[in-house]
Design brief:
single chain; about 375 residues; mainly alpha; two-stranded parallel sheet; two-stranded antiparallel sheet; 16 helices; 4 strands; binds zinc ion
Length: about 375
């Protein structure tokens, strides 16, 4: 009896052979659609907590140092483009304009903001919020329309839980709660992006890959990814302790058959602590801009995919299929990980078909189901 191989069958990672069959009949159309929705989802995810804006600001500010693929000495033309962009940026930029404004008004508040590298914060926070709301509603709305409205009468073709849809009340709830979280997280991201743009010294993000060398870049990216996965697992597991579950995390678990919107519909306290945890390493460990942005995009993308309710396997051998997190919403206290099965395997919290689960069965391992419940 091998429980782990049983669970591997339950949540196979990476593309399985059967997965290719759907590509054959209409390869181009389906791949195009997949690419299109992937870009939309990545945009929606990265804007949901305002990080899209944060990384745009990082890139914009450090354009001159951003020679990841083209070292400066080997590519003069690109360097010139970078320099001209930089000088253009210096001649007309928001920072300069607001500096003049702050000199004129010369008030106490602006001085305090400058002391904390937060000048322009009143421009950047609304910008971050605007980007978040716009992408979230336009992209999220499109995805809802494509699956949940257009294909609503054929759920067995695409849905993890074909018999189950969110009630109208819960659909509204996830939009409202998601909008509140966008406000909280977008504000946090807006403040952080202002800090980074103004050269805040606490951030350890670097932009020139040669600064620490290529091997460091690769190793630090992998370590950061695993660190994010560990933080997500343990934080999520803690949220399933009875006190935290009842007071915070239950807000997210009212969506028994989640949609992409559910991904950001969390208790605002839970949401902002999560965002803070994921960003924490950038203040302690030197991480390349691409590593940070890459891991975040990956995390957001699969965060949305995993909540989409659409039955899909991932292409990566380490990334569990959508069913894995969908089952977390269906069975409550199991499958706590997000981007690997490592920690669930290690702690024995993968869902098992011979155990019984429910909202009142805490601990992550279910309870003995007895003979009849074996096929749960
Ligand atoms: Zn949960
Ligand atoms: Zn969830």
């Amino acid at each position: 009896m091998n429980k782990s191989s049983k669970n591997e069958e339950l949540y196979p990672c990476g593309l399985q052979d059967k997965q290719w069959s759907w590509l054959k009949p209409d390869f181009s159309g389906k791949v195009l659609f997949l690419v299109f929705t992937s870009i939309l989802l990545a945009l929606m995810g990265s804007s949901a907590r305002g990080e899209l804006f944060l990384f745009a600001v990082m890139l914009w500010k450090n354009w001159d140092d951003f020679y990841f693929f083209y070292p400066r000495e080997n590519n003069d033309s690109l360097a010139k483009v970078g320099d001209s962009f930089q000088s253009e940026k210096n001649s007309v930029n928001v920072s300069e304009a607001s500096k003049i404004l702050s000199q004129n008004s010369n008030n106490f508040l602006n001085k305090v903001l400058e002391d904390y590298c937060l000048q322009d914060v009143y421009i950047q926070v609304p910008m971050a919020l605007l980007t978040s709301y716009l992408v979230f509603f336009v992209v999220g709305g499109y995805l809802q329309w494509y699956y949940y409205i257009k294909k609503r009468d054929k759920p067995e073709e695409w849905k993890c839980q074909p018999q189950r849809f969110l009630t109208r009340e819960n659909e509204r709830h996830e939009i409202y709660l998601g909008a509140v979280c966008l406000l909280v997280n977008g504000t946090f991201s807006g403040i952080l992006s202002t800090y980074v743009k103004n050269g805040g010294t606490w951030s350890k993000v670097y932009f020139d890959v040669n600064k620490y060398g290529f091997p460091y870049f690769i190793v630090s990216t992998i370590v950061y990814f695993l660190l994010q996965d560990a933080a997500s697992y343990y934080y999520h597991r803690m949220l399933h302790w009875p006190f935290f579950y009842r007071n915070f995390h239950k807000w997210h678990h009212r969506y028994h058959s989640p949609t992409a919107f559910s991904a950001v519909a969390l208790h605002p306290v839970e949401s902002v602590v999560f965002q803070f945890l994921l960003l924490l390493p950038i203040f302690f460990v030197p991480l390349h801009f691409v590593s940070v942005a890459g891991c975040f995009y990956y995390l957001y993308y699969y965060g949305l995919i995993d909540h989409s309710g659409i039955d899909m396997d991932s292409i990566w051998p380490w990334q569990p299929p959508v069913r894995f997190h969908d089952d977390h919403h269906k069975y409550f206290h199991c499958n706590f990980g997000f981007n690997t099965l490592l920690f669930d395997r290690f702690h024995g919290t993968l869902r098992r078909t011979d155990r019984k689960y429910g909202e009142g069965i805490f601990g992550g391992k279910g309870s003995p189901a007895g003979k009849k419940a074996k096929k749960a």
